[in-house]
Amino acid sequence: MTADPPKGLELVVVTGLSGAGRSTAAKCLEDLGWFVVDNLPPSLLGTMVDLGSRSKGEVDRIAVVADVRSRAFTTDLQSALSELERQDVHARVLFLEASDDALVRRFESERRPHPLQGEGRLVDGITRERALLREVRGEADLVLDTSLLNVHELRGKVIAAFGDEDASERLHLTVVSFGYKYGLPVDADLVVDCRFLPNPHWVPELRPRTGQDAEVRDYVLAQAGAVDFLDRYEAVVQLLFDGYKREGKRYVSLAVGCTGGKHRSVAMSEQLAGRLAGPGTEVSVMHRDLGRE
Length: 293
Hints:
Helix content is 39%, strand content 18%. By secondary structure, it is of the alpha/beta class. The N and C termini lie far apart (54 Å). Helix 1 packs across helix 7 and helix 9 packs across helix 10. The protein has 2 domains: 10-162, 3-Layer(aba) Sandwich (Rossmann fold); 171-287, no CATH class. The strands form 2 sheets. Strands 2-3-1-4-5 form a 5-stranded parallel beta sheet, with helices on both faces.
């Protein structure tokens, strides 16, 4: 451990019962910008804090997911947290739990055994884990019972506890232009086709240029239906964004295609990105096929 306590470093330990939602909480923290480490032995907590302190501000929020791997788990975790306190580093502990009935339903739906059931029944493993974690639960900073929570409700509680002021509203949008002749982007959530517009490729003076050039942009926007399309599609996408935010979806990819990915899709992507950017939406633009022959 470094001799000087890291300034401004935040540390959260996510633990609790298997099946209670640790993975969901971890993914939510990752979406909020936390550096998440899964299944880290408690004895390595100090090492993670030390690495964070050496990152020169690149890692200032660390979330560690810890689960029961041995009967020494509770002792190891308490020892690690005590050592961090001596170093003036306070780690918040998020403990997730659920009723036996809820946990049994979740394990049975995934058709997997409880990590501590051994040769016994599923409920035996749950009982053992609950007993092992009793002291950790008692000292946790925040205990969340997920028995009656769906994934989105759990995300909302994690965001409220560990997110920035506007984290529950922020959406990250990537607008990708592409050429259909090179194939669809495999990770696109939404795909829109701009091939209904005349192709600048057939205008000799525009052919060597791209949709990032003013001449091509103005040509595309001057075509019948172009601006009307932007107006209507913007309204539809904003409606979708409102739903995504309510459902906890924070990352969206919007693909805009034309034949070669050089003229129409590039110009329309730039226009859509400019229209959709706002206080609650961070937008980045990528032109996948620009530069291809």
